[in-house]
User: What shape does this take?
Amino acid sequence: MQRAIISPENLRPSVETSLHNLIDYAYVVHTHPTIINAVMCANDAQQEVEERFGSEALYVEYTDPGYILFKKLQAEIRTYRKSYGSEPKIIFLQNHGIFVGANSPSEVKDIYKSVESRISEGKDLELPSGMMEAYQSELASIVSDHYASRNLVSKAFRSPLYSHFSANSDQYQKISRPFTPDIIVYCKSNYLFIEKGGKRKETGDSLKEFENTNGYFPKVLVEEEGGLIIIEESELSIRTVLEVFTDMMKISYLSEQFGGPHFMTGEQISFIDNWEVENYRRSVAKG
Ligand SMILES: [Zn+2]
Assistant: This one.
């Protein structure tokens, strides 16, 4: 793939390039929409797809991304062709997203519309507002002091959607692990829940313990009945983490309509964690 790049030469091909090439339609559009991932990251994902789409869609269980996923999808598409005599137009990937293929852009759009309406059928997919507002708390200033000497910035936010998950530690469990590899890339795979009323000393200890256990500082901190505190290297990165984590909360909330949240397993998470490290090491080595 590296040799096939026309320009610019300094960019890497996406690990999903080969997946696009597998699907024999002129247009292949791959996305990770919230409403589709609400099903893909739910306990009843496969059952819901079978009931709502039948032979029209191909459902693929979670597989480590990259070459492994490419080989798995290649085999599944071959089986689908044999069974139905056609190319699948809709491919659902558990804990990941969707591929839609067709021979015209307008058909791709129509398929997307129909997928969303079939998922919504008979379901209440209303969400509390995810609009984040700035929030100040004692914990937010403790955290900001804690990281000040390391050139890290932190900001606290709140939204009605967030309050749903920060009410207590049981609620927090529903957003305590990542749903998809993309979430890990931006937010990492572990987050920190801080019980209300925590003092400076205890909070400092929790932050240190988190770092000792995981090897990195928490990017996402959930304060019980308080704010969502995001710690990052810049304001721009804070915005990105906020956006990705908000999407994750929406997915979790909506997944309740499809059997409840289904996180990536420890093994799947550790594959991505190590993959990320590899990528990072390579980029450092390159200087
Ligand atoms: Zn993807």
Observations:
- Residues 16, 30, 32, 96-97 surround zinc ion (CB under 6 Å).
- Residues 235-255 form the longest helix (21 residues).
- The two ends are 23 Å apart (CA to CA).
